[in-house]
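Q: Hi! First time doing this. I have a protein sequence and I read that you can turn it into a structure. Is that right? Here it is:
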Amino acid sequence: MKHLGILLSGRGSNFLAIADAIDRGQIEDAEISIVISNRAEAAGIVAARARGLATHVVEARGRKRAEQDAEIVACLRQHDVDLVCLAGYMRLLSPEFVAAYPQAILNIHPSLLPAFPGLDAQAQALQYGVAVTGCTVHFVDEQLDHGVIVLQRAVPVLDSDDEASLSARILEQEHVAYPEAIALVLSGNYNTVDRRYIARASQNATPIEEAK
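A: Yes, that's right. Below is the predicted 3D structure, encoded as structure tokens:
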């Protein structure tokens, strides 16, 4: 059984998609061992408690990032976490955190990285005038939205789109892509070479898929 640790700051919709995928058996031999937030009032923490999951809040106010991260890492280790999943966690991780879980922290970002890293990726896509954007699940390293890409899903940008409509359609694909990527990583059936995630031949999933 693999143990997941979820970090979130807000509503936790990707956390719920992951939890539902585990319940459906889409992510096999896995369970969510702990849900951690930097905000006590986060809706995702409320949802986790409603599901009977263990939760922990590590407030960021007035604390150095390294100190906060050390507490989070200790909590993850206490719950035997194998894979850390950032699900709308709005804090940059310290180098010490990344070093504690090398190639074992995943994040999802609402663009086709390396395009539009950082905040407001959907607005960036609209301002730039691209025809296609999407979402990316990637390993976390010490740089912002930079680690090895595991899986991407493309979303067309419509002429009628505004930031809200585009964000909603990307989010739908995030809820599909994140559980799929977690299942791929937990299978261990891959290699990373330089910046490339290479699925072994026995896997059927493709690393880039277009939303229908």
